[in-house]
Amino acid sequence: LAKTTQPISMDSYEGQEVNITCSHNNIATNDYITWYQQFPSQGPRFIIQGYKTKVTNEVASLFIPADRKSSTLSLPRVSLSDTAVYYCLVGEVNTGRRALTFGSGTRLQVQP
Amino acid sequence: SAVISQKPSRDICQRGTSLTIQCQVDSQVTMMFWYRQQPGQSLTLIATANQGSEATYESGFVIDKFPISRPNLTFSTLTVSNMSPEDSSIYLCSARGGSGANVLTFGAGSRLTVL
User: Which of A71, A75, B76, B98 has a Cα-to-Cα distance from A56 of 20 to 30 A?
Assistant: First the structure.
């Protein structure tokens, strides 16, 4: 399975840009990279998904280098409401069990 | 993307009893899953709920303890059988396919406390 490694926790302040990096050294050719956000007492929520280079949506950007062995979730100008746990998942999106495996996640704490 | 409703949202149960959690999706989905999340921990996949056939369980989870049903493309149940305090956890239903084809959508979870 494509094991993922993320920092356990990160701290930031409101208005700053936050970058969370996920390592996935044994990513396979058909694997996508998907990030989820989880608030307390809620299920995880999809943030962004990519295969290579850069993907941007209204919430975040995802940067994937050419070798795809890592990826970086970028949250621009965070607010207190971005305090959550962020999970990086790697795997085939339609059939792969690996795309179902959650690692330890990164607990982001945003301070005023 | 699909909207998932789970019930109960929380319950307090006695040791030795069983509880069934229901998961309803507002649209037809290809795949449904059940996860467990203990407080402060990550999510652990229990099983894939297969429509019209037996669920596929992950290592460490067995059908006798966690029987699962999926009678159609929008509904599934998870039963936690013969509960002990170690089963106190949050149980989450998830789905993939349908309008949110390539990503997982989650319910809010069912928080079980076993006394």
Answer: B98
Query: CB of B67 within 8 Å of any CB in chain A?
Result: no
**Could you say which DSSP state residue A57 is in?**
-
Which distant-in-sequence residues (6+ apart) come within 8 Å of B37 by Cβ?
A: B43, B44, B89, B90, B91, B92, B109
Both tokens assigned to B101 = 């084809």
- The nearest CA of chain A is from the CA of B114 a distance in Å of 18
A77 torsion bin: left (phi>0), alpha (psi -120 to 50), beta (else): left
pLDDT in tens, chain B (115 residues): 789 999 999 999 999 999 999 999 999 988 899 999 998 899 999 999 988 889 999 999 999 999 999 999 999 999 999 999 999 999 999 998 655 557 899 999 999 999 9
Give the one of B92, B102, B111 whose C-beta lies nearest to A94's C-beta: B102
Q: How far apart are the first and last CA of chain B?
A: 37
